[in-house]
Amino acid sequence: MDSPTSLTPTAAAPAATEPLVIMGAGLVGTLLALYLTRRGHPVHLYERLPDPRKAGLREARSINLALSDRGWRGLAGVGVTDDIRKVGIPMYRRVMHDQRGQLTYQPYGQEGQAIFSVSRDSLNRTLLDLVEAKPDMEITFGQKLTQLDLPARRLHLRDVASGREYDVPYQRLFGVDGAWSAVRGAMQRLDRADYSQQYLEYGYKELTIAAGPNGTWQLEKNALHIWPRGNYLMIALPNLDGSFNATLFFPYEGSLSFDSLRTPEEVEKFFGDVFPDVVPLMPELDTEFFNHPTGSLVTIRCWPWSYQDSVLLLGDAAHAIVPFYGQGMNAGFEDCTVLDRLLDDLGEGDWGRVMDEFERLRKPNTDAMAELALYNFVEMRDRVADPRFLLQKRIEAKIAAQYPAKWLPLYSRVTFSPDTPYAEAWAAGQKQDAIMARLMPHIQVEEDFEKPEVQEMVKSILTE
Ligand SMILES: Cc1cc2nc3c(=O)[nH]c(=O)nc-3n(C[C@H](O)[C@H](O)[C@H](O)COP(=O)(O)OP(=O)(O)OC[C@H]3O[C@@H](n4cnc5c(N)ncnc54)[C@H](O)[C@@H]3O)c2cc1C
Ligand SMILES: NC(=O)C1=CN([C@@H]2O[C@H](COP(=O)(O)OP(=O)(O)OC[C@H]3O[C@@H](n4cnc5c(N)ncnc54)[C@H](OP(=O)(O)O)[C@@H]3O)[C@@H](O)[C@H]2O)C=CC1
Ligand SMILES: Nc1ccccc1C(=O)C[C@H](N)C(=O)O
């Protein structure tokens, strides 16, 4: 994890009575609230949407999420892992489905290592329950931030139900209002604010693979399923009720695209041709395809993430990434861990310093994660269908077993490390890719790895 270096702790400030304001009660906002309240601060959370626990399910997108070690560490810091573990399903491997319905497998890590499928809604509700149980915590739902006066430290909010508009002063504001952050929007209008957004030419559509009789799973339960098709892909993550949430990542335009599938017949023909094994398990395919929204996919980078000592962006508001590594929420949870650690190390006497240090530590790592997410897009839609790639992964696992001190696969560094900085993982992964490019021409089948000349080559490369 990003750790502060050679910093002198400053004296902790007396507990502030004015609440810290958090804008956005999504995944990261609620976790952040738990961290800040644990430090003795009153917290006021504002959220644009109604309380999901009262309003029922909205038409949620990204229905389930992969939670991995960084996310678990973030949850562990406020002692809530047990609550979440109850609603998670471990996924130990990728299962690839080819066009004839044949399966290949790729374990995520070592025996017993898994990423967890959790429902966004359960996670959000659980975190909200935990937040609400704390004293000195206020959550106001249905309040949308419409304007932010940064120099005057004043929020302008609209009560969504009544339309009433009002101002709220603050001393410290945490902008955790997601990829389309209004807090960031205000900061972007300042002098020397950098901002970029890059959309993929792909969108995503969420679909359902039905549960079998008595809530049984019709595909392997403890796995993440992938239908890699070169230029596009579908994935599926398991739910507790026996269903799977499938997501099609597909071009917006072109000969095979959202644009080209206009009728139920076209959708059925397309799915029947390219995903034949799963179509019989998707009885609502047509309705869902035409009724569910098509989501866009974007990488957002900005700088700075803070304003004086009064505003800090975290989570997607600071670094929205495409979902292909399953790390957006995990990175946001890691933001909370890093901020908490900085507050321990630096004290709370100088928030400006804490905020500066936070963005300095986090930015290179979330930039690296943005690259990794794009890298995994190509891997998931294309490379996992290539037997040579799967062979390479098996060889990497053998190298890791033989030289554990020298080789940890990139996926493990990103996913199964609670704290390796993303930038360090990405740099090591690029080096490993270069090594594998030298080695693989000498390996045609798995047994070739045992040949003395290959063993010699591996040894010599690793000691270079
Ligand atoms: C298809 C898909 C799959 C994904 N899969 C994974 C995965 O497997 N693993 C993973 O780690 N990540 C995944 N992600 C990323 C993950 O969803 C995000 O990183 C995560 O939701 C970010 O949390 P957040 O709290 O920063 O933002 P959000 O969860 O978006 O929360 C922001 C909150 O702020 C509120 N808000 C917004 N604007 C305002 C305003 N003006 N006023 C008041 N409130 C406001 C919103 O209503 C929302 O509740 C996925 C994303 C997508 C799209
Ligand atoms: N990096 C990525 O590719 C993606 C990341 N995500 C993350 O997951 C979170 C939850 O996703 P989900 O529930 O689907 O949220 P939504 O995509 O439904 O977005 C929530 C709100 O953000 C605003 N919004 C959405 N798309 C855009 C856009 N292209 N430009 C400007 N504003 C937009 C809209 O606000 P209004 O109604 O006021 O206009 C919308 O109602 C998001 O907040 C985001 O952080 C989600 C999708 C893609
Ligand atoms: N949650 C996701 C959402 C969309 C796309 C991929 C994921 C993944 O989790 C991929 C997984 N990490 C993998 O590498 O197989």
Automatic annotation (TrEMBL):
Residues 21-187, 308-349 form the FAD-binding domain. It is an enzyme of class 1 (oxidoreductase). It catalyses: L-kynurenine + NADPH + O2 + H(+) = 3-hydroxy-L-kynurenine + NADP(+) + H2O. Its EC number is 1.14.13.9. The chain crosses the membrane at residues 20-37. Keywords: FAD, Flavoprotein, Membrane, Monooxygenase, NADP, Oxidoreductase, Pyridine nucleotide biosynthesis, Transmembrane, Transmembrane helix. Pathway: Cofactor biosynthesis; NAD(+) biosynthesis; quinolinate from L-kynurenine: step 1/3. Its cofactor is FAD. Belongs to the aromatic-ring hydroxylase family. KMO subfamily. HAMAP family: Kynurenine_monooxygenase. This is Kynurenine 3-monooxygenase. The lineage of its organism: Bacteria, Pseudomonadati, Bacteroidota, Cytophagia, Cytophagales.
